[in-house]
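N-acetyltransferase domain-containing protein
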Amino acid sequence: MGDKLLPLVTRHFLIQPQSVDKLWEEEWSVTLRDDADKKVGRFHFEEAGIDGEVTLLLDIEPAYQKPSLGAEIYSAIASFVFKFQELKVVRTSCRHEDDDLVHSLEKAGYVRRKNSDGRDFYSITKQKTSWTGLYMILGLVAGLIIGITISNLWVGTFSGIIIGTVIGYLIDKKA
């Protein structure tokens, strides 16, 4: 599946692994999109797949550690990781004093979980879909049609709520 998604292309960067066969073991390179020979950073994953989590260790050249550029890289990596069904959390850490990296992580949607020994630990969690209202409306419409058909709107409303809940469960369990 990974070879269809690669390389990761962002507004400014091209992100690709050294080996498509070993996505989670090999080092990845971050290069400029306009100049693929100019390597501006590298990263690798650790503990991939353990309890649905993966740890990300990223190293970017100082000239490219601006919050907007860092957020672009962190967001692209998280989006890629979340395309794999079994992975639900991306974790990383940085020095507390590194303001640019802290802002990059926060801008990319990572949440600070704890601070230990001068390091901040961040993570981002794969979100479930939030279409509950749509599921319930679809269920209620189906239920009301059933209620009108059997001439009992109370049974139709009740069945609509059940249908909406079932639709939501079936669609959200894939996320």
